[in-house]
């Protein structure tokens, strides 16, 4: 179709002529509401972004002379972060003459990797950057667990679970909805007033 005719057709329908594939021979165009199309695209991107899990790298800092209790506390922090799905960067900070004792830092990181065991994957082995030594641990990639939906009981089970009807009332047959109970309303009482006697 000639572009002029396509534009004329789009204007008649009060829509836009949008070029879909400019590199194709001949170029491909579509008649559509471009504003609505852009809104739908943004909406899809927002939904995709909302469903994404953003992985954050959380840092746990150690020193080469860390005490056992402090080590256990920081190890538990690392396990909690991994359980939440975040990566953990375990860092050893060397100060002054501690730089000559880097083997102690490597020992602490190796102990941490051994203690965490198969609850994490070692993404990067111990690396030295300036006066810090660090290792990056990542959680195992697992399929997200789906929460099962609650299943409503079948109609027969629901009828059996209902209390029995009081005596004098007939139970509704299975499969049919029971009629609402009849409500008795009080009838208004009209008192008859005798006509007034007329005196003549």
Structural class: alpha+beta
Indicate the mean pLDDT: 77
Shape: elongated
CATH architecture classification of one domain: 2-Layer Sandwich
**Low-confidence segments:** 143-147
Number of E strands? 6
Radius of gyration: 39 Å
- The CATH class of one domain, by name, is Alpha Beta
- Helix count equals 5
Strand content: 15-25%
The biggest sheet, with number of strands, parallel, antiparallel or mixed sense and barrel status, is: 4 strands, mixed
- Determine the CATH superfamily of one domain: Translation initiation factor 3 (IF-3), C-terminal domain
How is the CATH topology of one domain named? Translation Initiation Factor IF3
**Spatial order of the strands in the main sheet?**
3-4-6-5
Summarize this entry quickly:
Among the domains are: 3-51, Translation initiation factor 3 (IF-3), N-terminal domain (Ubiquitin-like (UB roll), Roll), CATH 3.10.20.80; 57-139, Translation initiation factor 3 (IF-3), C-terminal domain (Translation Initiation Factor IF3, 2-Layer Sandwich), CATH 3.30.110. 33% of the residues lie in helices and 21% in strands. The chain has five helices and six strands.
């Amino acid at each position: 179709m000639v572009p002029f005719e396509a534009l004329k057709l789009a204007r008649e329908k009060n829509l836009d002529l949008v070029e879909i594939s400019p590199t194709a021979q001949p170029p491909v165009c579509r008649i559509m509401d471009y504003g609505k199309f852009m809104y739908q695209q943004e909406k899809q991107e927002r939904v995709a972004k909302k469903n994404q899990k953003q992985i954050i790298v959380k840092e746990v800092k150690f020193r080469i002379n860390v005490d056992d209790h402090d080590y256990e506390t920081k190890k538990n922090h690392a396990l909690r972060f991994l359980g939440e799905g975040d990566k953990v960067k375990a860092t050893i900070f060397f100060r002054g003459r501690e730089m000559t004792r880097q083997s102690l830092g490597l020992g602490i990181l190796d102990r941490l990797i051994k203690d965490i065991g198969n609850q994490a994957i070692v993404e990067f082995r111990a690396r030295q950057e300036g006066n810090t030594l660090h290792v990056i641990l990542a959680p195992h990639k697992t399929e997200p667990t789906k929460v099962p939906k609650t299943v409503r009981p079948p109609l027969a089970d629901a009828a059996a679970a209902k209390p029995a009807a009081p005596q004098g009332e007939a139970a509704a047959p299975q499969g049919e909805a029971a009629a609402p109970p009849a409500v008795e309303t009080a009838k208004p009482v009209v008192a008859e007033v005798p006509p007034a006697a007329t005196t003549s």
